[in-house]
Amino acid sequence: MSPLSAARAALRVYAAGAAVVLAQLLRRCFGGFAEPVFPPQPDRVAIVTGGTDGIGYATARQLARLGMHVIIAGNNDSKAQDVVQRLKEETSNDKVEFLYCDLASLTSIRQFVQKFKKKKIPLHVLVNNAAVMMVPQRKTRDGFEEHFGLNYLGHFVLTNLLLDSLKAAGRPGRTARVVTVSSATHYVGELRLRDLHGRCVPA
């Protein structure tokens, strides 16, 4: 991507972000953000990708507060143990753990799934949250452009490898769930189907 195209993309992203923030503030002012009340969820298991920061951390904390067994899937080993300990203390739930998973590596994703399945526990909720945004032009370990490879392909593979566990855990009236977190930047994104890896500079 040329510098000019990158600058235009950045401006569109920030404009969309400002619009979303403004809309959320207006909704909050008019009482549109009443926090939903969920019943306790003991004996249920959730995986949250990117659960050491931001939305992923807040999601993991809420699920742990509901009594779920929460597995944080991430690639930040150095931060993970502190996060797990903090979540346990904040939620009084000892069923919080970390398993390494680098979504920029298909090998790492498969290894994560193997480790999870060795635990012989069900899976009721998969939250696909981890992502990168506006990183420099670079590739995943498998040669894919990083936004496409990590945000989309990584979660696609992870979800497909865990589908059997999700199907086995669900039942009528209490089905399993896959939740994929998205971004308002899709409003301004440009998808070039003939150049998904962003190798060509647009005219």
UniProtKB/TrEMBL annotation:
GO molecular function: oxidoreductase activity
One term under GO cellular component: extracellular region
Record's signal peptide: none
Keyword Oxidoreductase: yes
GO process annotations (BP): positive regulation of autophagy
InterPro entries reported in the protein's UniProt record: NAD(P)-bd_dom_sf, SDR_fam
Gene3D superfamilies named among the record's database cross-references: NAD(P)-binding Rossmann-like Domain
UniProt keyword terms in alphabetical order: Oxidoreductase
Domain of life: Eukaryota
PANTHER family referenced in this protein's UniProt entry, alphabetically: DEHYDROGENASE_REDUCTASE SDR FAMILY MEMBER ON CHROMOSOME X, RETINOL DEHYDROGENASE
The family this protein is said to belong to: Belongs to the short-chain dehydrogenases/reductases (SDR) family.
Protein name: Dehydrogenase/reductase SDR family member on chromosome X
Biological source species: Panthera leo (Lion)
Lineage of producing organism: Eukaryota, Metazoa, Chordata, Craniata, Vertebrata
